[in-house]
Amino acid sequence: MSFPILINKFFPGNVSTYIVLISIFILEFLIFNKIGRDFDTRLASEYRKISQFKSKMSQSPWIKYLEISSFILTIFPFILHGTVANHVLTLIFLIKICVDTTIKFLLNRIFKTSKVMKRRIFSLFVLDLIVYLFLGYVLAMQKDGYLFSILLIFSNFSLPFIREKEYELFKNKK
Asked: Pick from 35, 40, 54, 158: CA 20 to 30 A from residue 16's CA?
């Protein structure tokens, strides 16, 4: 199907529709040209910076193992939610809280000299606690294992934010 046929099919007969579509096309073309002008040089520069970056988090074997364990404990309730009782999901949830708290304490020890990183770790720890309270409510009070297992998958968000802040500090330092 060609472009004019698609326009006639979805936007029949109105001239102002054609004017809007053409102006959107021109605007997108101008934006693409403005962004794409030196995109390859910026991308190469950013790649060089990223390749020089060595995360303190990824250098610690304990954090790597605990991060993998936390991810497995995040996925596990989704796999088991229909076959086990809520007590088993509660036990898995409590173990996940312990693993994530241990990760935060280890990160706090790794970044003991950086106040910015300590603040970021503490604020994400508080956010984790709020999320865990909500998930605990869903599991204990609502007794909804399916909703709990779905929401638990989306609760594993703090470590990427800590890595992002570490990279941002590294980039600003250079």
From this structure: 35
- Residues 6+ away with beta carbon under 8 Å from 5: none
Distance, in Å, from the CA atom of 122 to the CA atom of 125, rounded to the nearest integer, reads 5
At 161, the amino acid letter reads F
For residue 16, give the 3-state DSSP assignment. helix
Residue 86 and residue 145 in contact, taking contact as beta carbons nearer than 8 Å:
yes
Q: Which of 63, 156, 64, 135 is nearest to 102 (CA)?
A: 63
What Rg value do the Cα atoms of the chain yield, rounded?
Answer: 24
d(C-alpha 154, C-alpha 137), whole Å: 16
What does residue 55 show for φ and ψ, rounded to 5 degrees? -75, 135
Contact (Cβ atoms closer than 8 angstroms) between residue 78 and residue 153: yes
The Cα 174–Cα 166 span in angstroms is 13
Structure pTM?
A: 0.68
Q: Which residue, among 159, 156, 64, has the nearest Cα to 104 in the 3D structure?
A: 159
